[in-house]
Automatic annotation (TrEMBL), chain A:
It comes from Sphaeramia orbicularis. Residues 1-23 form the signal peptide. GO terms for biological process: attachment of GPI anchor to protein. This is Phosphatidylinositol glycan anchor biosynthesis, class T. It comes from the Eukaryota. Residues 28-100 are annotated as: Disordered. The gene is pigt. Pfam families: Gpi16. Keywords: Signal. The keyword Signal applies. One of its GO terms (cellular component) is GPI-anchor transamidase complex.
Automatic annotation (TrEMBL), chain B:
One of its GO terms (cellular component) is GPI-anchor transamidase complex. The lineage of its organism: Eukaryota, Metazoa, Chordata, Craniata, Vertebrata. The gene is pigs. It comes from the Eukaryota. The chain crosses the membrane at residues 5-23, 517-539. It is a multi-pass membrane protein. Pathway: Glycolipid biosynthesis; glycosylphosphatidylinositol-anchor biosynthesis. This is Phosphatidylinositol glycan anchor biosynthesis, class S.
Length: 580, 554
């Protein structure tokens, strides 16, 4: 697809992790036992001991007691050390410079197909240092659970996405944040990590607990280390791909249980701000749903004197208004999300809604009610687009607007890196650097053989098929307009995710559909029948051999015929002498 | 004859080669475990030894008596807790008279200063106590105080009035003994503490409610704890809260934790949760012009908040939660009422083995013309005082009320006196030993009952190291080395838990013998029946032949 685009010079990395012949989707039960929540898998100690059992009632019969305390205990300590306690009063708002910052943003773009694309972005910036074993333990806006993960596992960058549905690039254009169907996780570790594989294993287990997803099924058979693609997106030019791990789980199904922990990471939760719109019934009743968490270190200013950590939570939804709606190409926030906005998150330094009106400069295709005079131009994906902006932090936005309505008025290769798989140890990895000529079709084909797996390696539903993860195309595409290379400048969040190195090109990542491969499937009720059958065959063979060896054969006097014997019995009854 | 030989040789091949081969290939690997030593541990006889030094100051004994003072005296106190567990307390008492330096120290104007200078003179080791017997006329203690317990491991004991005249040494010692014993129970270990610590092993008879509540309140012994401070701000639109948690932790909590370091590792973190509501709507009380929370409804307060607190992602240690709740502008002030409908002065409450909550009212800072949002700096000294008290309770530092006539020195900047730490260490060592023995014995029992479980070498190694550490811990307790005993008991608990929760123990748990034989029967039955039949036939023929021979000889 990408090849058909009119790209004069394009560099493409094709990463294709092929796992046809190996058991990607077979999950040993042992892997779950390393789950952090270990108590689930464990037998209870024998009840006689009562050690484990007394704890439960203790929790249920939890007694709340008022706390009594003697003031003097603290006052001693306070008197000694606490001279400089700030007085317990209201202070002027010009206090200390806050070290963390939260922004939220929603972009709505009516697509040509009539669908509506809504993209939420929440960004928490925190001026702190997780590197070099620095112990960070006091959290304000940054979620504690993720902070603990970063400092415990020495993570440099973490990107995780959960996607349901497939992004139709031909109809919808490019997404702001590309992601493959299922779950994708890629992590750059800091170079202080010695046992990267062990850390990766533990990290996936912990993340699966945090996000309620089956990320614990990531093991060496579906983890690769791409050498050319997936460069770090934050600061730092690490090229040693020993510290990179990439894995996808195309089978992963995304649902509300993944959304709830994701929402919990937001400072305002779903109580205020744009996250109010996230009602799971509506979000999952859509053509495409993708939620992601990206953590990376970024520069605070253009000279990069101070670094800060960026947590970006994104949620992309494509609503199909034709099937759900009343046939009219008309939508509103309420119709899409069945909620409306009432306030911005009070913790957010900026809270904005952008509506893409590039295709509608004069308002001949649709009109926005209420109208806004705030316009903004942003360069996104090599294109300069115009947006209407609603700033939720300004009070007058809500003066007129309770719900935002939008109505429409009917009118080739240079570098190849191939890592063959090892059965049940690691998957295939094929990376190609291709230069694509314009107006051409490039095909990459891989031959494979279907093989039988071990019978314990089949999934509970083997006839469904086995997934092969999406191929990934990362490209630097020449831009029509000059890109902004200053990454620290204030820009809308949706246009600032991929860092730009030069003005003339922009970075695009495209994921293909995952493949579903049917493997030969045996009849699983057979093993016991086979055991019985073979045993019977063995027993028959053995029995005849045994007879042959142990019996001695000799000619025997023939027995009197049956008829004769019966006749003799009758004759005896009659008192006639029997036949000879 | 040839047939018989063939049948015999086939039977021999099957028995000599086939059966061992089958046995060997289907056997589960079970490493050797020190079963006999585990059996010994199941029968636990703990002996706790405490060293006590009784120092007579000038003016308490006459010079003749001084010569007759026995050097050492040991007292044993034996308790049988249940059929498998027995306890023995041994107090090794040494008597001596005070040195000149100590006399100088005792001449300080106040008890606290004397305590400090005595500590400067010599530092007594962990688990031991020094009791200074001071004359009745001493100026160190106030009139009505008989015993002064210092911040370290020393106590001052005033000699009674009836001992002033006409006393013999035996009378004096008899007079001192019960009081020293009472002092020891307060400062090192008491039978109730130790039996409470054994609760993992011994099912306690339903005693009085108070003591059970006390023992249930504290967290169970663990090699580490996570302490989480959470600031709940349900109304970020009206309140912009600032708390200097880093400084407060450094000032108030860290000294205590540094002191507790031998017991466990602590890690502290904090977070701010916005829009975190309590689970109960507080009721407006007209008489106080304030909102109130009843003691009965406190149990429901936490549930919605707890979902957002989150567990620690990076460790599996127990978490102590301390929540500071700032009620929203529409529901303030908020006060907690106890069961007698009285306002709780600290406005805080705690839950056993979970943590504590403090409600922090900010409505007094609104001022006459309030413009929301209000910036509020939280007074951390006030908050941390409450949290520190709760932390002490939850960690099991019992502030049991001293008997009349006892004066306990206020704990200093560290928030914990040395003898309190010792007391905690005694009960934690016993608790660890009890837990580890229970774990190890139940593991041995489990492995013994289910023969299918594979016992890998690493499990056997963990079990052995747990058993060794346990034996060492018991021995160290016996010889009175409290620090080492605690160290070994911690190692024992770690090793035993690791062995018990090893995932490899689960593999073949559900593969019972009857199913295994159901699979083998189609092979075994047709093979064994001919062999057995022909063996029977051979046996009967041999018997027949012998009988024939006998009749022939007859």
């Amino acid at each position: 697809m990408a090849a058909r685009r009119n790209i004069p010079v394009g560099l493409l990395f094709i990463l294709c992790s092929l796992t046809f012949l190996i058991a990607t989707n077979t999950h040993e039960t042992t892997s779950t036992s390393e789950h952090p929540d270990k108590a689930v898998n464990l037998p209870e100690k024998s009840t006689e001991t009562g050690g484990q059992t007394t704890e439960q009632p203790a929790v249920e019969e939890r007694q709340w007691e008022p706390t009594e305390f003697q003031e003097e205990t603290v006052n001693d300590a306070a008197a000694e050390k606490q001279d400089a306690t700030p007085p317990e009063t209201t202070t002027t708002s010009a206090g200390a410079h806050p070290k963390d910052d939260f922004q939220e943003e929603l972009v709505i773009r009516p697509l040509q197909s009539g669908d509506v694309y809504a993209s939420f972005q929440f960004r928490t910036l925190w001026e702190t240092d997780f590197m070099k074993g620095n112990k960070v333990s006091h959290y304000r806006l940054f979620p504690k659970s993720l902070g603990q993960v970063i400092s415990k596992f020495s993570v440099r960058e973490l990107h995780i996405s959960f996607t349901q549905g497939y992004w139709r690039t031909m109809q919808w254009g490019q997404p702001f944040m590309p992601s493959p169907p299922g779950a994708e996780l890629w992590v750059w570790f800091q170079d202080s990590v010695t046992d990267v594989d062990g850390t990766w294993k533990e990290l996936t287990n912990v993340l699966s607990g945090i996000f309620c997803a089956s990320l614990n099924f990531i093991d060496s058979t579906n983890t690769v280390q791409p050498s050319a693609s997936f460069k770090p997106l934050g600061i730092g030019n690490v090229t040693d791909h020993r510290f990179l791990r990439y894995a996808t789980l195309p089978r992963e199904i995304v649902c509300t249980e993944n959304l709830t922990p994701w929402k919990k990471l937001l400072p305002c939760g779903s109580k205020a701000g744009l996250a109010v719109l996230m009602k799971s019934e509506k979000l999952f009743h859509s053509s495409f749903h993708s939620q992601a968490v990206h953590i990376r270190p970024v520069c605070q200013d253009s000279e990069c004197t101070t670094t800060s950590w960026e947590l970006r939570q994104t949620l992309n939804v494509v609503f199909d208004l034709h099937t759900s709606g009343q046939g009219k190409r008309e939508w509103s926030l309420f119709k899409m999300f069945s909620r409306t906005l009432t306030e911005a998150c009070p913790l957010a330094s900026s809270s904005k809604i952008y509506i893409d009106i590039t295709d509608n400069p004069q308002g001949e295709q649709f009109e926005l009610t209420p109208a806004t005079h705030l316009l903004s131009q942003a360069v996104v994906l090599g294109d300069r687009r115009t947006f209407s902006v609603y700033d939720l932090t300004e009070a007058n936005t809500f003066g007129s607007m309770r719900s935002l309505n939008l109505k429409t008025r009917p009118k080739s290769g240079g570098y190849i890196h191939y890592q063959p798989s090892k059965d049940r140890v690691r998957p295939h990895l094929l990376e190609m650097l291709v230069q694509l000529p314009p107006n051409s079709v490039t095909e990459v084909t891989v031959q494979f053989e279907r093989a039988l797996l071990k019978w314990t390696e089949y999934t509970p539903d083997p006839n469904h098929g086995f997934y092969v993860g999406s191929s990934v195309i990362s490209a630097l595409v020449p831009s029509m307009v000059a890109m902004d290379t200053n990454n620290t400048k204030e820009r809308p969040l949706f246009s600032s995710f991929f860092p730009c190195k030069e003005e003339s090109s922009y970075f695009v990542r495209i994921y293909t559909e995952p493949l579903l491969v049917n493997l030969p499937t045996p009849d699983f009720s057979m093993p016991y029948n086979v055991i019985c059958l073979t045993c019977t065959v063995v027993a028959v063979g053995y029995g005849s051999l045994y007879n042959l060896l142990t019996r001695s054969f000799q000619i025997e006097e023939p027995n009197p015929r049956l008829a004769k014997r019966i006749a003799n019995v009758i004759r005896r009854l009659r008192g006639v002498p029997p036949l000879a | 004859m040839r047939g018989q030989l063939a049948a015999l040789s086939i039977a021999a091949v099957v028995i000599i080669i086939g059966v061992p081969l089958w046995w060997r290939t289907t056997e589960t690997y079970r490493a050797w475990l020190p079963v006999s030593q585990i059996q010994e541990l199941a029968n636990l006889e703990l002996q706790l030894s405490a060293d006590v030094e009784v120092v007579f100051a000038r003016g308490t004994v006459t010079p003749e008596q001084q010569k007759k003072i026995p050097l050492t005296l040991s007292q044993d106190d034996e308790h049988v807790v249940d059929e498998d567990t027995s306890l023995r307390y041994r107090y090794e008492t040494r008597y001596r008279t005070a040195t000149i330096m100590e006399e100088d120290a005792l001449n300080q104007p106040t008890a606290a200063e004397a305590d400090l200078s005595l500590h400067m003179l010599s530092e007594s080791p962990c688990g031991s106590l020094v009791v200074y017997v001071v004359p009745e006329s001493t100026s160190l203690l106030p009139e009505d105080v008989e015993v002064y317990i210092g911040q370290r491991r020393t106590a001052l004991l005033r000699i009674g009035t009836q001992m002033r005249v006409g006393r013999t040494l035996d009378q004096l010692l008899d007079h001192l003994e019960p009081r020293i014993k009472k002092l020891l129970q307060l400062m090192s270990f008491s039978h109730t503490d130790i039996t409470a610590a054994l609760s993992d092993r011994v099912r306690l008879s339903p005693g009085n409610k108070e003591s059970i509540a006390d023992s249930m309140r504290a967290f169970k012994s663990s090699p580490g704890y996570e302490i989480t401070f959470s600031l709940l701000n349900p109304d970020p639109k009206s309140h912009r809260l600032h708390w200097d948690i880093e400084g407060a932790v450094q000032t108030f909590i860290q000294p205590l934790l540094t002191k507790l370091e031998p017991l466990a590792n602590f890690s502290i973190d904090s977070q701010i949760l916005y829009y975190a509501m309590l689970g109960v709507n507080p009721r407006f009380d007209n008489s106080h012009n304030a909102y109130t929370l009843n003691a009965d409804s406190l149990a429901h307060v936490i549930n919605p908040v707890e979902a957002r607190l989150g567990s620690n992602a990076a460790s599996s240690n127990p978490v102590l939660n301390f929540l500071l709740y700032v009620p929203d502008a529409n529901h303030s002030p908020l006060y907690i009422q106890d069961r007698k409908k009285q306002q709780v002065p600290s406005n805080a409450f705690h839950s056993p083995r979970w943590g504590g909550i403090m409600v922090y009212n900010v409505n007094s800072f609104y001022g006459p013309d309030v413009a929301f949002p209000v910036d509020i700096n939280i007074n951390m000294a006030k908050v941390m005082g409450v949290f520190l008290a709760q932390l002490r309770l939850l960690l099991g530092v019992q502030s049991s009320t001293p008997p009349p006539g006892f004066l306990v020195a206020p704990c200093g900047s560290s928030g914990l006196a040395d003898w309190e730490l010792d007391r905690l260490m005694w009960s934690r060592s016993v608790e660890n030993i009890a837990t580890a023995t229970t774990t190890i014995t139940s593991l041995a029992q489990l492995l013994d009952q289910i023969g299918n479980i594979v016992i890998n070498d690493n499990i056997a190694q963990q079990v052995s190291s747990a058993v060794t550490s346990l034996q060492l811990a018991v021995a160290e307790l016996e010889s009175g080395n409290l620090g080492f005993a605690l160290q070994y008991s911690k190692e024992a608990i770690l090793a035993s838990e690791r062995a018990f929760f090893d995932p490899s123990l689960l593999h073949l748990l559900y593969f019972p013998d009857d199913q295994k034989f159901a699979i083998y029967i189609p092979l075994f039955l047709p093979m064994c029946v001919p062999i057995l039949l022909s063996l029977l036939k051979i046996a009967s023929e041999v018997r027949q032949r012998r009988r024939d021979k006998q009749t022939k000889t007859d």
